[in-house]
């Protein structure tokens, strides 16, 4: 239990190895990292936390979904786990929570990896996915797959477990978390935020991303020292579409930017 409410935590790999915090995007959960994690655990302590209202984490206290609030919840969870330094890896809107965590806790976040995280609202390609009427919640498999289809390259099958996890969310969590991400990005574009943060940065983008303009990955080059890598053939979710190639880029970056973490508690209580 944290001041922000209960959070579901998953930990893999040796506890005394450098820590990676994997932050999922909106309307999904830590399970979205399942294909990637096996490539990381030989050399890292991998921490996955379901954001409030997602996966196995209940809605937050006060039902607040702002990006800074999500980041504060992550920081509190890491404190409770005894993890002192992390490379924060965010997929999609999880990159906003990773950035906000670095803004709030610069001593905790040693570096950042952003995977298909849109840099500014003008990079969103649209069209907006078909809305799911809260009055008709929960949505059907067909509705969810229609909403999620642009989250993957054309022809990629949306995993059933992710369909089920979106359906398990409350309509408030579903809509509020997405609105919070847009508000955070509208307030200030990510390259400006990351320049102010001053942390080492790796950006990974699929060149078939159908939610954010792939060329917008170059917007991050204004961040001093930023690395930008394009994954040919990958869509918006290379962590599931191309996990081995994505992991190779993450590991290549973390070899020079990870710090060892202390052993901590096995779970929050």
Structural class given helices, strands, pairing? alpha/beta
The main sheet comes to: 7 strands, mixed
Residue-averaged pLDDT: 92
Oligomer: single chain
Task: Kindly report the spatial arrangement of strands forming the biggest sheet.
Answer: 1-3-2-4-5-6-7
Give the helix level as a range of percent.
Answer: 25-40%
Key terms:
disordered C terminus, single chain, globular, alpha/beta, 269 residues, 7-stranded mixed β-sheet, 8 helices
Can you tell me about this structure?
With 269 residues, the protein is α/β, with parallel strands linked by helices. The protein contains eight helices and seven strands. The protein has helices at 67-81, 94-104, 141-148, 160-168, 171-187, 190-197, 238-241, 243-257, and strands at 9-12, 19-23, 45-49, 86-91, 109-115, 201-206, 227-231. The longest helix has 17 residues, at 171-187. The model is unreliable at 260-269 (pLDDT under 50).
């Amino acid at each position: 239990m944290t001041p922000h409410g209960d959070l579901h935590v998953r930990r893999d790999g040796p506890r005394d190895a450098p820590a990676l915090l994997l932050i999922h995007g909106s309307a999904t959960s830590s399970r979205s990292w399942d294909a990637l994690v096996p490539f990381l655990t030989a050399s890292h302590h991998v921490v996955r936390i379901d954001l409030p209202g997602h996966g196995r984490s209940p809605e937050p206290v006060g039902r607040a979904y702002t990006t800074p609030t999500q980041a504060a919840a992550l920081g509190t969870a890491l404190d409770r786990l005894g993890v002192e330094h992390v490379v924060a890896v965010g997929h999609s809107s999880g990159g906003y929570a990773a950035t906000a965590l670095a803004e709030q806790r610069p001593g905790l976040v040693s570096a950042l990896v952003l995977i298909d995280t849109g840099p500014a609202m003008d990079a969103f390609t649209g069209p907006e996915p078909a809305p799911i009427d809260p009055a008709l919640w929960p949505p059907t498999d067909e509705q969810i797959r229609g909403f999620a289809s642009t989250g993957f390259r054309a022809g990629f099958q949306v995993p059933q477990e992710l369909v089920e996890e979106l359906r398990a969310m409350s309509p408030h969590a579903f809509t509020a978390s997405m609105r919070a991400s847009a508000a955070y990005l509208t307030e200030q574009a990510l390259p400006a935020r990351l320049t102010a943060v001053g942390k080492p940065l790796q950006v990974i983008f699929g060149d078939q991303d159908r939610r954010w303009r792939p060329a917008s990955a170059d917007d991050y080059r204004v961040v001093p020292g930023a690395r930008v890598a394009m994954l040919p053939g990958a869509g918006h979710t290379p962590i599931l579409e191309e996990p081995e190639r994505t992991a190779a880029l993450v590991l290549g970056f973390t070899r020079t930017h990870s710090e060892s973490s202390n052993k901590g508690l096995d779970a929050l209580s």
